[in-house]
Amino acid sequence: MSKVIVYLGPSLSIEKAKAILEADYRPPIRRGDLKKALKSGVDIVGIIDGTFFNDSPVAHKEILDVLKKGVTVVGGSSMGALRASELDVFGMVGVGRIYECYRSGRIEADDEVAVTYNPVTGEQISEPLVNVRYQLKAAEKDDVMTKKEKDALLSMAAGMHYPDRTYPNILKMSVEKGLLSSDKADSLLKYINEKPLNLKAEDAVAVLEKIKKISIS
């Protein structure tokens, strides 16, 4: 039976993950973690969440070294999507819509998937920009907001520092800047609370399902 290690954080709860795939679940990947994984005799590595910016993110070379040793590496949702879009030509397996967006160049910035979260509980505190895009696109489709309003909000949200991206903050700022009326902002927040969407979670599930297929093939 394949030994599977999955690096998971705020994108999906451990409980939901274990209901899909039995694996050794570890915290968001950081530099040096793959060396430890190799020592434990891993066959398949799943990268979903990882540390960003100044907090020692996993390096491309680390993943390449693991691939060269015959380990299957599957990525998607967050750091996994970013690294897979850069390393799929070397054999890393990319999964999900966020991976496809990075791969096609529709999104490029690391902070599209970056969030802040509670290090103890793993609970997500801020909202990744990819989720904001997904949520506002649905709001436009459901006639909760116009395309012009959606585009203006996305442009504003993209300019925010990633820890500040929460829906209440985004909507408060949109009113202050005159992008939305107070009533429209309230209606949009109600819509988001009633029909929440989470693209990172959906892609995290896709990563686990892909690993499950690989491990039993």
Structure overview:
With 217 residues, this protein is of the alpha/beta class. It has 2 domains: 4-115 and 199-216, Rossmann fold (3-Layer(aba) Sandwich); 129-194. The chain is 49% helix and 9% strand. The protein has 10 helices and 5 strands, in the order βαβαβαβαβαααααα. A 5-stranded parallel sheet has the order 2-1-3-4-5. Helix 4 (79-87) links the parallel strand 4 and strand 5. The chain starts with a strand and ends with a helix.
Which helices and strands occur, and which strands form pairs?
Blueprint (H helix, E strand, L loop, with lengths): L3 E4 L6 H7 L3 E3 L6 H7 L4 E4 L12 H9 L3 E5 L2 H9 L5 E3 L1 H8 L24 H13 L5 H12 L8 H10 L5 H13 L4 H18 L1
Parallel strand pairs: 1-2, 1-3, 3-4, 4-5
Helix pairs in contact: 4-5, 6-7, 8-9
Structural class of the secondary elements?
alpha/beta
Strand content: 5-15%
User: How many beta-strand segments?
Assistant: 5
Describe the sheet with the most strands. 5 strands, parallel
InterPro entries: TfuA_core
Organism: Methanocella paludicola (strain DSM 17711 / JCM 13418 / NBRC 101707 / SANAE)
Pfam families: TfuA (PF07812)
Protein name: TfuA-like core domain-containing protein
List keywords for this structure.
217 residues, single chain, 2 domains, TfuA_core, TfuA-like core domain-containing protein, alpha/beta, elongated, five-stranded parallel β-sheet, Rossmann fold
Structure described in brief:
By secondary structure, the chain is α/β, with parallel strands linked by helices. It folds into two domains: 4-115 and 199-216, Rossmann fold; 129-194. It has ten helices and five strands.
